């Protein structure tokens, strides 16, 4: 719906008001900006917004993408804010239902749900499906944070709270923000990406430490050995950084570790904050006494 307007600029154009209706001497206000004479646009902002058809290149422009990215955060935060305690479970999208890793992940999901934790996965097939399956069997909250991929794939059937993301980075924020810990089963590049992002965030103190457990010593053992030797020996990481990872073959141990270590870390975080507040109060008291 486009209304006819007066031509921009030129004699008399400065007399057009905010709504495009001519009004002597008032000019044209565009938000906080006042336009007069040749600066007055041919159409009002509303006319441009409501006009049908026309060029649609703007849909592919970066400012428009920024709005979409923002909406992913808004939708994600809105959907997950009230979920309560949760643990993110990662692992291969390719693990088949008859593989022992699948059974391990089902058990992890089940035990987490039994302990009152929501299970958060990438919502896809393989290990993600297995962990959601376990949570579903135990009647727990089974979350899938899906990702739009070039090839067709849907949210697995065991998800009861699903959010679909267009952008990997927005989705990754949710895994960290809403989980008390990570449990990582055997996987490929996607799994490594999620694991190493978590390690980097904790190592650089960008987030408070949270427990990270690797399930499957035969699969992860080689990586840990390499981290201990090639990586730590050459000083690429500190020896203490190796303690950020806990490795086990037992789903029960993985779940117990995540819960207990998570509680211990949260308690020491609270203690450190209390001490900080006390120190600040003492400092403020000393300053007041001295004045
Ligand atoms: C059949 C197939 C490959 C489907 C891919 N469909 C996917 N759906 C959801 N998350 C995914 C998918 N592929 C990779 N990811 C992400 O990357 C990890 C698995 O990647 P990978 O298979 O280890 O490297 C998962 O924890 C998940 O967060």
From TrEMBL:
The keyword Manganese does not apply. Residues 15-26 have a biased composition (Basic and acidic residues). It comes from Krasilnikoviella flava. Residues 1-41 are annotated as: Disordered. InterPro entries: LOG (IPR005269), LOG_fam (IPR031100), LOG_family_nucleotidases (IPR052341). It catalyses: N(6)-(dimethylallyl)adenosine 5'-phosphate + H2O = N(6)-dimethylallyladenine + D-ribose 5-phosphate; 9-ribosyl-trans-zeatin 5'-phosphate + H2O = trans-zeatin + D-ribose 5-phosphate. GO terms for biological process: cytokinin biosynthetic process. Belongs to the LOG family. It is an enzyme of class 3 (hydrolase). Gene3D superfamilies: 3.40.50.450. Keywords: Cytokinin biosynthesis, Hydrolase. One of its GO terms (cellular component) is cytosol. Its EC number is 3.2.2.n1. The keyword Hydrolase applies. GO terms for molecular function: cytokinin riboside 5'-monophosphate phosphoribohydrolase activity. It holds the Pfam family Lysine_decarbox. It comes from the Bacteria. This is Cytokinin riboside 5'-monophosphate phosphoribohydrolase.
């Amino acid at each position: 719906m486009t209304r006819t307007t007066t031509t921009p600029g030129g004699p008399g154009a400065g007399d057009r008001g905010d709504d495009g209706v001519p009004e002597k001497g008032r000019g044209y206000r565009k938000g906080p900006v006042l336009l007069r004479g040749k600066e007055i646009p041919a159409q009002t902002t509303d006319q441009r917004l409501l006009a049908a058809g026309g060029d649609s290149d703007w849909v592919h422009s970066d400012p428009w993408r920024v709005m979409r990215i923002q909406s992913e955060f808004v939708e994600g935060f809105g959907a997950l804010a009230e979920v309560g305690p949760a643990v993110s479970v990662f692992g291969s999208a390719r693990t088949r239902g008859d593989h022992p890793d699948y059974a391990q992940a089902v058990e992890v999901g089940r035990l987490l749900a039994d302990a009152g934790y929501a299970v958060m996965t990438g919502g896809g097939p393989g290990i993600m499906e297995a962990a959601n399956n376990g949570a579903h069997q135990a009647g727990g909250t089974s979350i899938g944070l899906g990702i739009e991929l070039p090839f067709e794939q849907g949210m697995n059937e065991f998800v009861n709270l699903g959010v679909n993301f267009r952008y990997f980075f927005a989705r990754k924020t949710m895994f960290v923000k809403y989980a008390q810990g990570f449990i990582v089963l055997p996987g490929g590049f996607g799994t490594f990406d999620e694991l190493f992002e978590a390690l980097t965030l904790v190592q650089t103190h960008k987030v408070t430490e949270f427990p990270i457990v690797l399930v499957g010593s035969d699969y992860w053992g080689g990586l840990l050995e390499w981290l201990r030797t090639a990586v730590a020996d050459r000083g690429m990481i500190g020896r203490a950084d190796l303690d950020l990872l806990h490795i086990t073959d037992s789903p029960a141990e993985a779940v117990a570790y995540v819960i207990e270590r998570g509680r211990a870390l949260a308690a020491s975080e609270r203690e450190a904050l209390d001490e900080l507040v006390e120190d600040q109060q003492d400092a403020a008291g000393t300053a007041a006494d001295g004045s």
